[in-house]
Amino acid sequence: MNTSAIFERIKAAAIEDWQRYVDHEFIRQMEAGTLAQAVFQQYLIQDYLFLIQYARAYALAIYKSPTLEDMQLAQGGLNAILGEMHLHIRLCEGWGLKKADLIAAPEHAATIAYTRYVLDCGQRGDLLDLHVALAPCMIGYAEIGRRLAPALAANPNHPYREWISEYASEGFQQAAQASINHMQQLADRALTEARFLDIVAIFSKASQLEADFWQMGFDLAREKN
Ligand SMILES: Cc1ncc(C[n+]2csc(CCO)c2C)c(N)n1
């Protein structure tokens, strides 16, 4: 099939689920600086557990790589996760939570659902299926980082400066672009017309699971109150 600008086409086909993810109430409140800290803390603790499982998904992407270049790109993703986890440890330390406390937290159903879904896409499918399941995470956070960056300039005391800066950073934006480029290569090699709807379904599902992940922060904070 004609696979030009494949990421834009997949996103357009899944636009409602994508919007519900990148424009979730959590993001709106974060942008405004009004998101309750308890909600953000619950999210971030679960996100640490999420990243451990997500690192396994990138490791699976190395295993599923037909070429050395695919392997190197997946390895870059794995390294980026290890770097991202420093943000979580730093922020949690500021609240008096140690790494051991994070690891000991029980995984929420939304964390399990999302990470195991991605791992399953990789186990039963090929590298394109897995890459598409991984895409909303990387590319969505880059879109959110770009959108929220102006809020930092407007408010010098923005409470979520560190988090927003991480995803708005040049390094992170480049990594997301590299992920789009890799998706393009994989699609050029393996995407057929017959597979397109299956690929869109994976992207939609992962986007829905991202939206559920934001929602989990509100739900957990309410339960603990
Ligand atoms: C629920 C959730 N979704 C996406 C990310 C962002 N993220 C996770 S792994 C990875 C790839 C390399 O760092 C990126 C961008 C997150 N932290 N939590």
SSE blueprint and pairings:
Elements: H1 6-13, H2 15-22, H3 25-32, H4 37-63, H5 68-94, H6 99-104, H7 109-124, H8 127-154, H9 161-168, H10 170-190, H11 193-224
Word description of this protein:
Pfam families: TENA_THI-4. Keywords: Hydrolase, Thiamine biosynthesis. The N and C termini lie far apart (53 Å). This protein is mostly helical and 225 residues long. 84% of the residues lie in helices and 0% in strands. The chain is built from 11 helices and no strands. The structure holds the ligand Cc1ncc(C[n+]2csc(CCO)c2C)c(N)n1. The ligand Cc1ncc(C[n+]2csc(CCO)c2C)c(N)n1 is lined by residues 47, 50-51, 54, 77, 80-81, 84, 137-138, 141, 210, 213. Residues 47, 50-51, 54, 77, 80-81, 84, 137-138, 141, 210, 213 line the site of the ligand Cc1ncc(C[n+]2csc(CCO)c2C)c(N)n1.
What does this entry show, briefly?
It is built from 11 helices and no strands. The chain is mainly α.
